[in-house]
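Journal club side-thread
Mid-discussion, someone asked how the predicted structure for our own chain would compare to the paper's figures. Pasting it here so we can look after the session.
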Amino acid sequence: MAGLDYVLYEEPTGYAIFKVKLQQDEVGSRLREVQDAANDLALFSKLVELVSFAPFKGAAQALENANEISEGLVSDYLKSVLELAIPKGSSKNQINLAISDKALGPSIKEIFPYIDCISNEVAQDLIRGIRVWGSKLLKGLHEGDLERAQLGLGHAYSRAKVKFSVQKNDNHIIQAIALLDQLDKDINTYSMRVKEWYGWHFPELAKIVPDNYTYAKLVLFIKDKASLTDESLHDVAALMNDDAGVAQRVIDAARISMGQDISEQDMDNVLTFAKRTVSISDYRKSLFKYLTDKMHTVAPNLSELIGEVVGARLISHAGSLTNLSKQAASTVQILGAEKALFRALKTKGNTPKYGLIYHSSFIGKAAPKNKGRISRYLANKCSIASRIDNYSDEPNNIFGQILKKQVEERLEFYDTGKSPMKNADAVKEALALGGGDLVAPAKEEKKEKSEKKEKKDKKEKKDKKDKKEKKDKKDKKSKKRKADDDSSDKKDKKKKKKSKD
C-alpha cells in the first residue's frame, strides 16, 4: 500500500491540511520509537508540514461544518479548501489523504476522484500527533484558543442535537400516556384500599356510592358516620352531583349502619389516605387535559380520527410520531398485538385482526363480521393522518375530519351498501376546507403555467408567420429571377434568328 501524501485535520477553529514528509508503514508505526515521536515536537515536526489552514469566519460556520462532517458530507467550504491546498492528480497518479472519519471518505471521493481517503492506524497516529501539538503547528493561535473553541463548538453542537420543535415534540406525549396508565392502576388500587379500610366503619356506603372518586370525597366529608344529620343533606348532595335522593339514602344508612366504631388515630390514617387518593385523581384529570391539548398540537389529524388516548398509545408504542408515520398500514393495524401475532405464526393459527386500534369507537360500532375489515381500513387512514401530522409545517385537523368522515361512511357502506366517498373527492374537500393557504398556491401555479403556455404559443405563431413571410419573399424573388431569365433567353433566340436571316 502506498504511503500517505496529505492529512486533513478538522479543527474547531477551521480546516488544516498537512503534507506528510516522512512515510510510515503499518508495521513500522507500531514500533515504540515511532510512537514516542508523537510526544516529541522536534521529532513530529519532521513527519508533517502545514500546507494550508483555513479558519472559520464564526461560530455559526463552525457549527454548520461540524454538522455536515458528522453526517459524512463535504461542505462547500471544505471543498474549496481541498481544491486550493491539494494539487490535482489523475486516475493513475492517486493522492492519499488521511482522514479521521471513514464516513467522510466516499463523499470526498465522489467530488475528487483522484483522492483516496485512508483512515487506517497510521493515519490515526498522525492525526493524534497533530491534535497534541496543534497549538504549535498551527500559526497565529495563542495558548488556550483551541480549548475555548472546542468547548464552544461542543456546547453549540450538543444544543443543536437536542434542540426540538415545540410543534413536533412527541416525547411529552409518550411520557404522559405512560404516566396516565400508571395512575389509572394506582388510583384503582388506592380506591379499593380506601373502601376496604373505611368499610369497617361504614360498610353500607360502598353499595350506595359505587364511583371511587365520589366515595373518597364522601369519606373526607363524613369522617365519623355519627356526625351525619339531616342538616348535612345539602352538603352530601353537592358532592353527588346534586342528587338529593342518593344523599338521603347515605344519611339513612349511616343511622342504621352495622359498622364498628374506630378510634380517632385510625380515622386520621384513613382520612390521610383518602385525601391522597383524591389528590391523585385530581392530578389524573389535569394530566388527561394536558395530554389532550398536546395531542391536538402535535398530531391533530390523528387525534381527530381515532381519539387522543388511542393516538397517544400508537405514538408511544411506535416510539415517536416519525416512527409511526414510517410504518405501513398493515403494521399500524396490529401494533400492540405482537405477542398474538408471533404466537399465531408459530402455531400456524389465525393472525390478529387488530391491536391498539381495537379501543377505537369505530371497531366497537362495527358488526362482528366487519371488525377485521374496518380495522384494516382504519389503520390505513391512521397511517395517512400520522404522515400528514409529521411532515406538515403547520398541521391542522382538517384532513383528520375528512378521514373520520370516510371511516364513518365505510361503516355505513358495510351496513346499508351506500357508496362511500372516494379518496380523490376527500382530498379535494379537505383542500377546499383548508382555505386559501392550500388552494391558492395551486391556483397561482396553474395561472403561471397558463400564462407561460400563452406566451409560448404567441412566440411560436410569430415565428411561423416570420418564416412564412421570408419563404414568400424568397419564392417571389426566385419567380422574378426565373421570369427575367426566360425573357433574356427569348431575346437571345430572336437575335440569333435575325442574324441567320
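Post-session note: The radius of gyration is 41 Å.
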